[in-house]
């Protein structure tokens, strides 16, 4: 009986809080923030494809500069950084869960060069794929 009132109170407090305007913008179907959310969803589904910012901006009906600026405001990273992080997380998952080799996982998530994949993986996780996976497996 009280659940609807509690939900309403939570929503009210969220909207009146310091980040309430962001929540409102996300909910508005034609706002720039909503379009950035569409870009994020597109990237989540197509992270393995090559990314051209102009194409992504056209997909969500924003200019390239507006997409870049608003994307960074929402995620604290550029679309390319976001895509890179998605790729590396998925590659790590493939290597850990499916037992794929680093080069195969790198190719599967969209990297063309094993050395580039290994370099970026090391930057994000602090160790090359083989060493990182050995460390992860030893903690499980």
Distance between termini? 44 Å
Summed up, the helix count is: 9
* Percentage beta strand: under 5%
Strand pairing plus helix content: what structural class? mainly alpha
Write down the overall geometry. globular
What low-confidence regions span 5 or more consecutive residues with pLDDT below 50? none
Approximate helicity band:
over 70%
Number of strands: 0
Quaternary state of this entry equals: single chain
User: Could you describe the largest sheet, including whether it forms a barrel?
Assistant: none
Instruction: Please give the domain count.
Output: 2
Helix-strand string: HHHHHHHHH
Rg measurement, Å: 19 Å
User: How confident overall, as mean pLDDT?
Assistant: 91
TL;DR?
This protein is an all-alpha fold.
Structural features, described:
The termini are far apart. With 140 residues, this protein is an all-alpha fold. It is globular and about 50 Å long. It folds into two domains: 3-76, no CATH class; 82-139, Orthogonal Bundle (Arc Repressor Mutant, subunit A). The model has no long low-confidence stretch (mean pLDDT 91). Helix content is 76%, strand content 0%. It contains nine helices and no strands. The protein has helices at 3-16, 20-27, 32-46, 53-59, 64-75, 79-98, 102-108, 114-125, 129-139.
Present the secondary structure layout.
Blueprint: H1 3-16, H2 20-27, H3 32-46, H4 53-59, H5 64-75, H6 79-98, H7 102-108, H8 114-125, H9 129-139
Helix pairs in contact: 1-2, 2-3, 3-5, 4-5, 6-7
Search tags:
140 residues; 2 domains
């Amino acid at each position: 009986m009280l659940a609807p009132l509690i939900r309403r109170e939570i929503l009210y407090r969220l909207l009146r809080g310091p980040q309430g305007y962001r929540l409102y913008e996300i909910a508005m179907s034609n706002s720039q923030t909503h379009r950035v959310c569409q870009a994020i969803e597109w990237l989540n589904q197509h992270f393995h494809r090559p990314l051209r910012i102009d194409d992504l901006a056209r997909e969500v009906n924003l200019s390239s500069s507006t997409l870049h600026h608003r994307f960074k405001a929402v995620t604290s990273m550029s679309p390319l950084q976001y895509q890179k992080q998605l790729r590396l997380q998925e590659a790590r998952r493939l290597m850990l869960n499916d037992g794929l080799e680093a080069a195969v996982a790198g190719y599967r998530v969209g990297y063309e060069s094993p050395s580039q994949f290994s370099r970026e993986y090391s930057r994000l996780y602090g160790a090359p794929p083989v060493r990182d996976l050995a460390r992860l497996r030893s903690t499980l």
